[in-house]
Amino acid sequence: MKYPVNEVFETIQGEGCFTGVPALFVRLQGCPVGCAWCDTKQTWDVLPENKVTAEQVIQVDGTIGRWADHTGTSLIQAFKDKGFTAKHIVLTGGEPCLYDLTEMTSDFIAAGYQVQIETSGTFEVKCHDSVWVTVSPKVNMKGGYKVLEQALVRANEIKHPVATEKHVDELDALLNGIDLSGKTICLQPISQKERATALAMKVCIARNWRLSIQTHKYLNID
C-alpha cells in the first residue's frame, strides 16, 4: 500500500513518553480536523499538483506541502540510503489515522523498528498490535470530528494540551468510562505558558499523571 508522505527526518522525540529518544519522523499528508493552532497546515490537503518524487521528501523541508507516495519497504530503504541510525519511528501528520497503517507498521516492526503513532483520535486506529499509540485528543475543532472511543481504548498514551481548567474538564469527559489501566496520561502545557505549566503540574501531581514538556521547542529542533 502506498501512503502520501510529506517529509521524513531524523531528530530527537521532544514530548510525551519517548522524550529524548532518537527518532525517525514520518509525516503523512492529509488532515481534515482543522485545529486553529496547527503548525503544519501545509499537510492538510493532498493536492495533485504538489506530488513529487519519492526522494524529494526525505530529509527535506516539508513546509511547502509537497508529498510523495511511499510504502513501508521504500521508506526502510530510504532510511538505509540516508544512513539514519534511529530505531524509533514516529508516524505523525497531518492525521496519520486517515489511513490504514497496518501494512506500513508491520513492515517497520518486521525490520526491527519500534513504532509510535501520534493521532488526534478522530479516526479509527488501524495498525500492528505492537505499535505504541499516542492520542492527543482534538475536541471541538473546525472539522467537526469527534474523538472516537476506539482510539482512546487503543491508546497506550493519552497526551492532552492544557491551558485552563476547561481543558482538564474536557479530558475528564473523554476518559469517563475508559479503562485507564496500563495507559499513561500526559498533560502538555500549551505554548509553554507559565500559568498553563503551573496548572498541568498541579493536576499531574494530584492524579499521578505525567507532565509532557515540548523540549524540542526549547532546543529549537524539529
From TrEMBL:
It is an enzyme of class 4 (lyase). Substrate binds at I12, Q13, G14, R27, T92. Its cofactor is S-adenosyl-L-methionine; [4Fe-4S] cluster; Mg(2+). S-adenosyl-L-methionine binds at W37, C38, D39, G94, S136, P137, K138. It comes from the Bacteria. PROSITE patterns: RADICAL_SAM (PS51918). SUPFAM superfamilies: Radical SAM enzymes (SSF102114). [4Fe-4S] cluster binds at C31, C35, C38. Its EC number is 4.3.99.3. Mg(2+) binds at T40. Keywords: 4Fe-4S, Iron, Iron-sulfur, Lyase, Magnesium, Metal-binding, Queuosine biosynthesis, S-adenosyl-L-methionine. Homodimer. Belongs to the radical SAM superfamily. 7-carboxy-7-deazaguanine synthase family. This is 7-carboxy-7-deazaguanine synthase. It comes from Shewanella litoralis.
